[in-house]
Design goal:
single chain, repressor, 2 domains, 6 strands, flat, Arc Repressor Mutant, subunit A, alpha/beta, Fur_C, two-stranded antiparallel sheet, transcription cis-regulatory region binding, Dna Ligase, domain 1, DNA-binding
Length: 162
């Protein structure tokens, strides 16, 4: 985390508070996190921060371009630092695996949307839902015990970058 964010905060009329510093540090450390996950991380260092402070601070940090959010499921938005490389997300509706993908993958689509519809894609907020190839595979006879037919044992995998 550089001092640049402190200058941006002050330059926009916001005070630099310990709570804001803790919240931004938590987002950067967690990678992708909901406000509740950020709160839990911050509370490891300070019990004085509440959930409304986290939400308000995340809004300010996003307004200043220091964090971005994406909707990766039907739960609360997930925030990440802009110091991460720009990416969009693929979310498997079955196993909930999240994969970060380089925006260059959709350049042909982005270009076409711009040219044909005068529309510029905000890749940082883009989430594509579908089914991963592991979940798409048909069930086999050697199905793990305790797994209903038509499904498979597929543990939720950590967030990966493609």
């Amino acid at each position: 985390m550089t001092d640049d964010w402190r200058e941006r905060l002050r330059g926009s009329g916001y005070r630099l508070t310990p709570q804001r510093e803790l919240i931004l540090s938590a987002v950067e450390e967690l990678g992708h996190a909901t406000p509740d996950e950020v709160l839990a991380k911050v509370r490891e260092q300070s019990s004085a921060v509440n959930v409304s402070t986290v939400y308000r601070t995340l809004e300010v940090l996003e307004e200043l371009g220091l964090v971005r959010h994406a909707h990766l499921s039907d739960r609360a938005p997930t925030y990440h630092s802009v110091t991460d490389h720009e990416h969009f997300h693929l979310v498997c509706r079955n196993c909930r695996r999240i994969t970060s993908v380089d925006p260059g993958v959709i350049t042909p689509l982005s270009d076409r949307l711009r040219d044909e519809h005068a529309f510029v894609v905000d890749v940082g907020h883009l989430t594509v839902f579908g089914q991963c190839t592991d979940c798409e595979r048909p069930a086999h006879a050697d199905h793990p015990p305790g797994t209903p037919p038509g499904t498979h044992a597929h543990p939720e995998e950590p967030h990966t970058h493609a």
